[in-house]
Structure formats: structure tokens, C-alpha cells
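fyi for ur records
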Amino acid sequence: MINTQALIQQRDQIERLRQNTSLSSRQAHQLGQSIVSSWQRSEMASIPTDRYAAPLAKQKSTEQTALHHAVTMCQDELKRLAQQSSMVVAIGDVGSTIVWTASSGQMQSAAERVHFIQGGQWREELVGTNALALSLKTKQSCCVFSNEHFMSSVQDWVCYAAPIVDPYSKQIVGVIDLSTTWNHHNSLGLLAAERCASIIQTALIETQQHHLFIRAFSIPQVLFNGKIVVLTPRQIEILTILALCPQGLNLEALHQALYGERKISMGTLKAEMSHLREILGNLLSSRPYRLNAQVEGDFLQVEQALDAGYTETALNLCKGVFLTRTESPFLMAWRDCLESRLSDAIFKAKDADILFKHLAHSPEAFDAIERLIELIPTDNPIYQKLIRYIDER
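which gave:
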């Protein structure tokens, strides 16, 4: 544990920096650029100054995700950690909404007062700088100490957070946060958070013994238990349709979804399904055709993120066009629907940085350009470049 006097001095220094409207590069380096950037985003978010607790989600999620199953497997170990270290341990989803917590007696009432509980929404635009949101934003472990927090009600806390990475898809599926009072700040706190993330990631492997992951953006690809399965574009289309129709499809419905009115015989589709079954074995059943594996995909994650209102997560996952060469009427219609939902989310976005990141891997996203023109001041040099780009097109 760090000397109390040193922690008091650290709090005083942070407070002086908070009062400074223009930080020098040296001061920003002292504080940490990620914290400075988070403060700036928090100021722009127009968070009510009297906000004391995080908003609560209207409905608790009942979705049994791989993360949920993994947490269930190791929850006893996490509960012991919370009790022994006088902390509250919280696990958040990709949008910083808490899905599970365990509190020590010392921290329980404090956690409940500020809604650091299941259903608490700790997105940066709602409550400002906090470790849950910052770890997801930076994609790395982080510590938010005392009055580095934006919301005054948690400025007596110190929080350590680390992202939880799916061992197969390599994508961030959540975040774990360990929190206690500032005077119990420990230089090993980050290591503890990273260790807890590792425990959950190990549990994810154990819960995903029959795990199929479909990448449909950019270069389509299918992974089974983390290993690439060599498939044709048509076979990937079939798996994507079945992933979107978990209840299963009979031969006629699958043929219509895949080929539409094209003159392709039922026999051709039967042959495709036979080839797939040779590769996947009992992971593919018939009558109806259905996948008997835990199926995830980047396109499914985008849909889930949009359902939850996590625009930044959805845009980060869209690294290219969904199955750009498909001729399947079902998949083309689903893509049109997805792009319409993404465009709607883009025009509601208030963070220009999110849109710039989206343009970096989707330069033809004109809706993002149009929204940036609305968000950026007209005297900004980038504004004129965007106007010229639109005119040239």
C-alpha cells in the first residue's frame, strides 16, 4: 500500500490540474494523456453537474452470453477476492453496463449508492471519466485514482480495470473493474485486475468447446475453437444464414434465402450441405438445417451493440462491408437493414472521434462525413476538407 501522505499529495496535485483549463504538455504527461482526453470528452458530454449515481438500465439483460457463462464458472473466486481485499468487483459488457458484481462489506453500501451494481450504465458520456469506460476506450488496463473521476460521488474511490478478451475471436467482450477507497490505493491493483481478466478468459476457453466464430466484414472467415476452417465463399454464406436463423431452416427455405429466384437446383444445395457436414461433422444438423455449436460473429456483435445503444462498439466492429460479394437475397436484405441502422446511429452520434475512427476503415461512409460536417466548427481546417470531399464526389 502507498504511503497515505503521498496519496494526499497526489489528490491535491490532481485537483490543481482539474482547475487548470489549459494543461501544458508536461502537466498532461504527469496526469496521463488518457485521463486528460477522458476529461475533455466528459466536459463535452454535458453530464448534469448534480449527477450522483450512474443511470440504471431499464431492463436487466437476460441474454446468456459466453461471458455470462464464464463469469458463472469463476464467480466464487471473484467473490473471495472482493471480500479479502475490501473491494467491489464489477464486470461490464462492451458498453460499460455492469452485468455482475460482488462487494465486500466495506464497499457494498457505497457501491449501491452510486449504482455500481448490475444494470449500472458507466459509459463515459453518461458519468464521465471512470475506469470501466476508459479501459474499453483505450483497449488496455488502466487505473483511475480519486478525483481523476469526473463524478464527485466516486472521487473517494480508486478503480483498476482491464479488458476481457475472447481467446478465440481476439475481440474485447467485456471489462473487469476492482474498486476500493483511494486511501487503499495499491501499486499492484492493476496486476490484480489483469489477473482477474485472465481468469475469466481461461473460463471462456472452457465454456466454448464447440465455438464457431464467423467474420463477415472485410475478408470473410470462419474459426472453430480458434482455428481457421477452410471454406468456400458459398459455404460461409450458408453458415451466416444459419447463424442469423438459429431456429433452423428446411431445404426449401434455405434455398430461397441463398439463391432467391436464381436457377440453381435443390440438388446443388444438397451437395453443398453434404460438403459442409463432412467438414463440420455433427455441428451441422438437418431437418431442419441448424448449427449445433455456440455461434458468434462480428455481424451478430454489431447487431447486439446497436440493440444496446453502443454506437462506438458497433462502428469499431464494422471494418469493411458485410459480405460484399454475396448475391444471397436474404443476406443482401439483412445488410441493407444493418447499414440503415448504422446510418441512423451515426446521425445521432455526438463524438467526432468515433466517426473519424470509423472513416479510417470505411472511407466511403458518407453518412459519417455528413455528420462530422454537422459536428465540427466551420473554422476547423478539417471542415473545409470534408466539404471539398463531398463536392468532389
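The first helix runs from residue 4 to 19. thats all i got for now
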